[in-house]
Amino acid sequence: MTEKLATLWPEIILFTCACVVMLLGLSERLGVRRLCAPVSAAGLLIAGLFAFYKTPVDPAAMLPNLPVFGKVLAAGIGLLILGLLTGIPDRDYEARVAQGRTRFDPKRTIRSEFYAFFLFSITGLMLCAGATNLIWLFLALELTSLPTYVMVALSTQRDKSLEAAVKYFFLGAMAAAVFLFGFVLLYGATGSVELAQIGATLRHQASVEGGINPIALAGLVLGILGLCFKIAAVPMHFYTPDVYQGAASPVAGMLAFVPKAAGFFALMLLLTAPGWGWMQPGGPGGGHGSLPTPIGEILAIIAVASMTLGNVLAIMQTSVKRLLAYSSIAHSGYMLVALLAGPGRPGTLLPENGYSAILFYLLSYGLTSTAAFAVLALLERKGPDGQVHEADDFADIRGLRKKHPALAWVLALSALGLMGFPPLLGFFAKLPLFASGLAGGHLVLVVILGLNSAVAAFYYLRIVSAALLESPDASGHAEGMVQTPFRGRALAGYVGVLAMVAMVVLPLLSAGSFLHVTPASWASFGGTYKDAAPLAIAPRLPSPAKPMGAAPTGEGPMSEDAPARP
Amino acid sequence: MTIPTISQLPTTLAYANNAYLPILLLLLSAILFAVGNVTISKFLGPSRKGKVKDATYESGVNPIGSARKRFNVRFYLIAMVFLVFDIEIIFLFPWAVTFRNLDMTTVDGGVWLGRIFFFIFTTIVAYVYGYRKGVFKFD
Amino acid sequence: MHYVAVSLVLLLIGTAGLLLRRNIVIILMSIELILNAVNLNLVAFARHHGNAAGQVFALFVIAVAVAEAAVGLGILLALYRNRETVQVDEIDLLKW
Predict the structure, then answer these.
(1) How far is it, in rounded angstroms, from Cα A327 to Cα A253?
(2) Given CB atoms, is A106 within the 8 Å cutoff of chain C?
(3) A170 at the C interface (CB within 8 A)?
(4) Domains of chain C: total
(5) Is the predicted pLDDT of residue A388 greater than 80, yes or no?
(6) Bridge partners, residue A379, by sequence
(7) What pLDDT shows up at residue C94?
(8) Does the CB of A120 have a partner CB in chain C at under 8 Å?
(9) Which H/E stretch holds residue A390?
(10) Would you say residue B82 has pLDDT above 60?
(11) What CA–CA distance (Å, rounded) separates C24 from C28?
């Protein structure tokens, strides 16, 4: 019991920090209230450093290196998103208080809730990465998403964000009920809530009965469907564009990363339990590495549908936020291809290890999408009705280079990064998706992934051309755009893009050891993989590295975005 | 009469037949009594209609307004606060039951104690937060 | 295994309510119903397997259900103050 606690220090730090922030924001003194954001940043920084240097790696755990990477990723991208979020809570209210038009009343402020809920959400994400059993996983997922519902509702004072919150909450609660039912069926089928134990029981049952237990199968399917909500994949994707558009841009930027990462961590853990060694007729052992047949098929359908639908609908959008929402659906589809490929046989490294590919992609996606949303959050204009509008439509960013050249470049670079344009990080993140898909033998999926990337290029290039090449249109929206006075947001944008660019230049190779996520005890499970043809284009990685427990020496890519505090 | 332990409680239907028969009879007679009385008075009693007769009975006073009145939203806050502290108990209770089995001199025992203190600490934070927000203020 | 049957029925009622009803409060109640189906299942499975994990899980599910209800009702209350409605089909500002 005690050793489990030792892995949780980052979460405890973050949680305590959230409690402190919750009380700080209610203070009568403006100076103390202002401390919310810096204290949150400090908490995230300390938690991230703690996770990086002090998290013990349990070599017997199911995915020994996932918690470390997941927590550092959560803290690092969390810092960027925190920068993005600055300035949302109490903007008008504090202005009124400062002008002396009203006295400060703790009842009216939302500052403390906003930052504390953000920290709670990140805590949930970290817990998700370290989950070892179903109860823990369920609670972590709920801790991740419950605060986000409230944050969507609080993000602007308009009807739209409330409506977005209602949609998000109800679909989210339904999805939670669905995956919870799945978890319960898994427990019912195996009699255990420990993921490793569940895996062992399933394989044992399969070797006796010659197939996966149908109740467990139903449980896994329900679990996957419910988690599709978190990652915004197809059967549960309806909310995405509405919620992204209804919420303020910074919160939308958070929604693009935090629940998605949590969902993918959960999916990885959930699918590692049955494992990849299922051959169609004979159960575990031998054959190609694949998931139990129906699950593999369902995941493949979800992946294809998400990619295609997301990209096709993204083309038709006139709102950049909705476009990014649909592209977020498509990105989930891409990552599901790697999920389907699985981690490969023990010792498989980055380009062919699907899990590592997902984690690397999450890192790249987190940086680039945060940067893209930061640009949207940084621009606003006063409408004819006197209301402040955030940048949303293409008309708002057309010809952005004329007035805000730096922002235009950030937006263009992040769009190119999301697209996977060759010299940028997105490209190096997408390659392992292809490579792992090929290694897993999913040629059709990989081809569809390639086609979709080409389709996606169309709308990403539209953003790039709107921002850099075109001139403002007659609506005058673009001319009216002014930069919001929040340095945190600008910092998030610049740091996100710089990290994205720099990570390609910096030794990307050491990521191989950091991203080395393989199930620990698979040797007995005979997960023999078809040998993939060596890929000439795949980035070369060092040979299997030292165990993660020894802190990687200094300049890993992660240590470089961690100090990026707003 | 002694309270039976769990293993002594009836488990089969055959046993239940004898033991629960009186209760069933009581239940039936209660239902019959209630339904019967209402029915009989409907048939036998006099029935006069009128504006005053059909009005809502409010202890003899003239009724004011609709019964479907909205409550102050403050009650919602109170309900929420109640729920939070109510649900704390379901975690404290199992902990308290197993607490006796813990050896406080070992590290494990100390960690268990520390955990529940941390849990209570979060409750206190929630309390202070609610207090600052003015949930407990009635004016 | 009657318990599992009952819980399945509860799940179906909950899902039907979720999909068919227009009143948001009833939708919230349907979700709570599904969570209760889950709890029943958990306790039944715990009894079946003879371990306490299911019961512990049920406790946590109850707590999460409460948190969810608190958040949901809070959002609903805010919505009602803004829009004066709790009907799903009248919430239509955001459309694709």
Answers:
(1) 13
(2) no
(3) yes
(4) 1
(5) no
(6) A483
(7) 61
(8) no
(9) strand A388-390
(10) yes
(11) 6
